[in-house]
Each structure stands twice: as structure tokens, then as C-alpha cells.
Amino acid sequence: MSERLLLRCRDVPELRRLEVYRANGGYEATRKALAQTPESLVEMVKASNLRGRGGAGFPTGMKWGFLPKQQDRPVYLCVNADESEPGTFKDRVIIEEDPHQLLEGIIITAWAIRCHAAYIYIRGEFEYGTRVLEEAIAEARAAGFIGKNVLGSGFDLDVFVHRGAGAYICGEETGLIESLEGKRAYPRIKPPFPATHGLFASPTIVNNVETLACVPHIVLRGADWFRSIGPEKSPGPKLYCVSGHVVRPGVYELPMGTPLREIIYTHAGGIPNGRTLKGVIPGGASMPIFTPDEIDVPMDMDSVQKAGSFLGSAGIMVMDDTVCMVWTLLVLERFFHHESCGQCTPCREGTGWLHRVLEDLEYGGGKPSDVDLLLGISGNMMGTTICALSDAAAMPARAIVTKYRAEFEEHAALGRCPLRAPTDAPRLHAHA
Amino acid sequence: MPTLEIDGRKVEVPDGQTVMQAAERLGIEIPHYCWHPGLSIAGNCRMCLVDIEKSPKLQIACNTRVTEGMVVSTTSEKTRTAQKAVLELLLVNHPIDCPVCDQAGECKLQEYYMDYDRQRSRIALPDKVRKKKAKPIGPLVMLDQERCVLCSRCVRFCDEVTHTSELGFYSRGNHTELDVAPGKSLDNPYSGNVIDVCPVGALTSRDFRFRARVWYLERFDSVCGACANGCNIHIYQREDRIYRFQPRENQAVNQYWMCDAGRLSYHGLQGEGRLGQAFWRTDAGFEPAALPAAVRVAAGKLSDLAAAHGAGAIGILASAQAPNEELHLLRRLATRLEARLAGISWSPPDAYHDDFLIKADKNPNTKGLELQGITTGGGADDLLRDAAEGRLQALVLHRCDLTAWKGDAARAALETVPYLVVLDSDRRETTQFASVALPIGTYAESDGTFTNHAGRVQRFVRAVAPPGDARPGWQLLAQLLAALGGETAVESAARVFDALAAECPPFKGLSWDGLGDDGVLAGAR
Prior knowledge:
A: Rossmann fold; 3 domains; 4-stranded mixed beta sheet; B: alpha+beta; Ubiquitin-like (UB roll); Alpha-Beta Plaits; Rossmann fold; 5-stranded mixed beta sheet
């Protein structure tokens, strides 16, 4: 097992405290970065091939490079700590156990993009994480890493923590910006992009927690080192969140590109109770499912995409053979229905419709035509909206219905779930 | 100036234009709900998705800027599929209550369903999400949340045009509802515009609701007479009753909007007090008279008084309520009778006004009065004082609510002056003093022009017939002039306007036909 970087908190007790963090080499990266020009840092991150860990996998250095060269407005850094993709719990570990790693990433990034105010937009439910961050910021400010004249460099930086109020859509970068501005988190139409018109109509970079946590390591060890971990085009250490029917669920730091089978069976200890694997969602609730014969895939952005799904947030959800796939999709679509912001027609109406049809199939009242109806609705939701939530709801539906079609047809023929008593669960929609 | 191709037709457009605007240039309609030329781009309805070559995904025409060589299809299989899909999704939770919906007949859901969808519903009515219906959200506006397609036009109107932000969306997903902010009412001076921008039956007019099916209404181009701004409007009428005013686009005047006071001002044009026949004073009292006889009697008496007493014996008072054509004919009348002519432009003191559309001057033609050289200064007061002091033999009042405007000074004049001719659309206190009252139509009942506060001469056309014996003002004045002799009758307001343009310097170079839909600035050429 290789050295843990992002999860050094597992090896060093009390790493969240500044004195412990500094005693273990903390803030050396900051010191080193402040001695370099912002341009050279942007180039270094470009050369490292670091790609965003929030879900889309966009090259981080390239994103920073989109900021206008001439700026008459302040540049803002928004830290996306809204981690709300079901099955994802990696940023939470960094925030709660190693906040200074994140703060270092923020300070270095802010220096690189000439930003003097960073906002950490944190998921409202992370109350403990918020307290940890606030304490860490206070410590870092007292030690001169944040505030006026950081480490005597002449660079000023404020870092603010802003709690969300419980909406998945606030994790979408422009929804996050709207919410931070005090508005309803309706994702914005693009163009213009946040790099030119973001927070307060100013140039803005939105980066995920894990992405920023990679930055100090790149500064300390170099772009070549980072690029040497895993596949060259999507390299680096990676946090994988494994949940569901495995012996040891949890967050694992492994080189990017570790095979899915190895993650499930070696690191997470395989399927418990002598059961067999039925399906696994590799990248959080919004990504297409893999069947047991599709798991020999390296878990990096390009390989998973080639295999027909996405690495997404690396939320690996493992399901054994006791799981009803209609119920699984129902649970997913209930979530997307609840979280659709309601702005774009296809998502607003499509998520609710999928949810309703799935309730009928699972709890009673489903019809054979519903199976193709699910495919039809989700097909009409793909690629037709402002943000990716519609696709996020449609992709798992298309994959699960297609790959487990017989199960859906069985439900339709029986009029309910074969594994469930008809009165098992209250449905959200009253049935006609 | 990039050139692009839409549905096989090339068009060159200015830099920065969107595919939506370029298509409009070609007369190609790209269906849309949320896009409105007077509001910011929201891009949420997804109805305007079009197929653009080299773009893997469909793009929304409203927010896609034209680039050189772009090739767009609004009719490709992919576009058609998306249009059909979006319509089906819009209708999933729509109540389909067209039979009781006021918007029926001018509803974009109905129209696009017929144009782009036409498939049977795949969801049962009882399965639909229910929301509030018929909720009054302001003095003028009724909200039906179930019919709302959440396009946000009304929200953006209140945010961007009136800056009052009464409206917003609440809840999420398909439970999202349009509503007024808690404790607020949609009660701003322009609230009615949200009814116009609403593409469906979510926001309807409490004034117009259930009064007529729109397909029975006929629409005419006009100009609002409620203030000096001269907002361009459509008058909707049926069987000579006006049912509503709606704004008509004019970028130089009112863009796409009008105020609520103007919108409701049509009620004042067809109130109980309309003068539908001529009256004259006889020994038996104030009696109805046949119009031709009344005109003949008035002309004869005025002519006699002018001849007997000479120049300045007769006073004519013309109000800024009168269109340009009537003012022109009143000037001819003054010349013919050697009468003193004064103008009056009265507005209530402290009348509401703002820096947008609503002017403190509540007259549609004050500027026209000035441009024709009819003084609005002390001339009217002088006339009234001279009348009260017995120095005038006759007074002609044209569209003057004189007792309301001048109080006792008016009553003193009206009681004293030996002969009073009143030309008006309504029977008022002033009318009771008349020797002869001649009924004329409102501006909605006549062709004509007003000159707005900025000097823009704007045309309106007759939308409804005047009641009873009433005649358009220009026509009645022309009859009066003809009865005085020496004038040939004019046959149209257009002819009167062209005569005005030929004779009056500020109007020089203008012509009725040349005014077009948007009007022309007087004195601009």
C-alpha cells in the first residue's frame, strides 16, 4: 500500500490541529508557493494534469487559465464543499480530519489566480465540518497564513465559510454562486462562464475540496511526480468512497486508475454474507450502473467513460443479489425529483414523472408500457437543460432499465415488486 | 456582421445577435416561452432548442450568439423530437382546463401543441400535481399556479422593469410555484404587464377575465390617451364595446409596456355619461335635438354674433384632450369667426408620475396644442374672466370639463356668457350650461393623431363607432365649418392631418401615411 497523502489524517492523529499539521511539514507548500510567481503555479498545475475531483473531471490548470488576463474586478475562489452526490463522502473526511490541507490548497490557489477572497460553500448538514473549518481558519489567521500580508509576502487573503441550506443543486457551480449571492440556486445559462462572470459578476474559479487538497502536494513534489501516479491524462492520488454491500465500506485513497474489481474485492473486502454482486454504481448516484461483468475497469476518468459510465465523484455503490433494481432506481429518482431545482422544463417535469412511474411499478399499478415509458422520458431529459441534473437523473434510469429490463418487466407483469409486500412503503404520489 | 444559414436561408446579422433574433429577421418562428425581447435571457423553458451544425447537443436559440458560417436547423428530426418532448413535459402537470381558461385562443401552450406536438397525453389527469388556482395576487392580476409553465417572464419583469420584485418561485422540482412574496401584493403601477408577458393562462386580468373569448375580439392600433406619454396600444373591441387595452411595441415610446392606469382607462371612454345625441336649449328647457339641425343652429348663431359684434366677440377654448386634427379645424373656426382661441391642458394637482412611462400631464396632446400655437398659459383664464365680465358674446368649449378644472371661475363665465356651444364626448356639469351641445366621439371612436410629450406625432385609428348621433370630432367640426359657408367638407382625418402638415411649420413634411406604426417626431425634418 502506497503512502497516504490526502488521507494522512489516518496515519497522523490530531492532524486537524495546526501545531500537529505544522509539525508534520504543514504549510511548507504555502511557503514554497508564495516564493513563486502566480503564472508559474498555474503552469505547474497545468503540467500536473490535475483534473477536477467534483465530478466533471475538468482540467484544473486549464480552468484557472480561463480567467481574463486584464481584470478590473476582483477574482473570487469558491470552494465547492457542498458534497451532496449520494454515495459520496470523501470531501467530508478532508474537511473534518485535515482542514489545513484544504486551507493550504486554498491559499496557494488564491495566490495563483490573484484572488483575495475565498468562499468555502459547505453543505449545511456538515455542521461539525463547519466548526472544524472555522477553528482551522482562526488558527491559520492567527499564525499569519490567512489575512493581511500572508507570511510577509504582501499577499492578502480572506477565507469565509458559508453554509448551504440543504439543496443538491447548490453543488452545481453556478447554482453555488447564485446561492452564495443570496439567491435561489438556479444554475446559470452559459455563456458567460464563471471565469469571466461568476460570483458578484466577477471572475470566479470554483474548485472541489479534494481538487484543492491535491494542490499543496503538487507544489511540494512537482508536476512530474503527480503525473506519474496512475494514467498520465487523469493522474494523482484519488479518494474512492465505497458503500453498500461490502465488508469494509469507507473512503480509500488509491492511485487513480485502480481497477474497480480491486477496490471492491481487495480494499473493501468483497461482498459479505456469501452473496454475489448484482450491480455497482461507480461515480455517485447520477452515473450509469455497471453489471458484475463490467467491473474490470480502471477507475480513472477516461477509462470509466470508455466503459460507458463516469468516474463522477467516485462514489462507488455496491449492490448484492438481494437488491431490487426497480426499487434502486425508485430511490435514485425520488432523490432527483426532490432535488430538481425546477428551472428547466425537462428536468422539472421529467424527474417527477420518472418517480411516479417507478412508484407504480414498485408499489402497484405499473403497466408493461411503463418500461419503455421510462426510457422515453429519460431519453427526452438528456442534453436538453441548463445544468447536468437532468442528465444525472436520466443516465441511471437509462442504464438500469436497459441492463435489468427483465426485472422491470416482471414488476409490470406482476403489478408490484416480487420482493415486497404490497403495502410495504408509503408512496409520495397518491395513486389514482 | 456574421452571416449564418437557418433552414437553408442565409442572413447577415449584426454582431452579438442571437440565433433567435436572426431567425426573426428571416420570419422564421422559433417556438419559445421564457424568451422575451424586453427582458433578460433566462433560457429555462428549453422550447427554443435548435440543431446547430458541429454542435453535438441541441442549443437554445435565445442564448446562442451567431457566429460566422453557422448552420442552423429549426426543423431537423432532432429539433422536432426535442420540441415535441418539451411540450409533452410542459403538459405533464398542466391542468388542461382550456374550456374555462381565459387565455384560450391566445395561449402559447395551445398554439405550440397544435404546431409541434399533437400527441395523446401519457399521464392521467388525477396523477397531476395540484397547486393553487384563481388566487388574486394584486388588484389587477389573478394567478393560476397549475397553468404556470415557470418561464419566469413575470418574475423578471418585476425584477428588471419595475424593480419591485413582488414575484418569485417557491418550492422545487415539479412542485415549484409562482407566487407573490409573503405579505406582498402585486400592486405596482405597471402590474398589468405581467398578464401580457405570461405566455399561458397563469396570470390573467381580473378586469378582463371571463368577459369575452379573445377570438371574438377585433384588434386596432391606437395610442393611449391617459397621459402625455402616448404609449402605443392595441384596442380590442367587439360590437363597438372596448374590452381591453394592451401595449403595442414602440421602442421609442413605451417599448413593450403600459401602465395600469392607462390599461384601465378604456372604462372612462364608455361610461354612463356618454353624450349620444345633440341637445339645445329651448323655452321648454334643455332638449334633445337632431344633430344636423343643432349644427346648423349653432353655426348660424355663431356667424350672426361674429358679424354683429366683430373680432374678438367669440371665444374658443380647446383642450389638450383634442387630437391634432380637431385643433387644426378649431383654428380654422377661430379664423372664420374672428374668435379668440385659447388652449387648456389641465391635470389634477399632484397627479402620479414617474421617470418611466407615467407623465404628470394627463392629457394626450398638450404638445400638439403648443405646436399649433394655441397658448396654454393665461389665455384660457383671460377668456373666462372676460366671459364672466360680459365682454364675450359666445363661447365654444371643445373637450373641456371646465367646471371640474376651473371651478367657480368657470361657473361665473358659463352663467354669464350669452351663447355657449359645447362639443364633448360626455355629458358633464359644464354641458348643463350649453346653448347647444354637440356629441363627439372619443379618440377610440375616431381616426387621428396625438403629439406626445416628446413631440412624437402618433396615429390612431377608429376602433369602435361613436354612440348614437355622436360623430368623430374632426367630422363634426368640419360640418360646423361647412355650415358657416365657404368651406368644402373634408372626408377624413387623414386629409385634415395632411392639411395641417401643409400649413403648420412644426408639422411640415409629415403626412398621415408617413407616420407609420411608430409615429414621427414633429419638427424633425
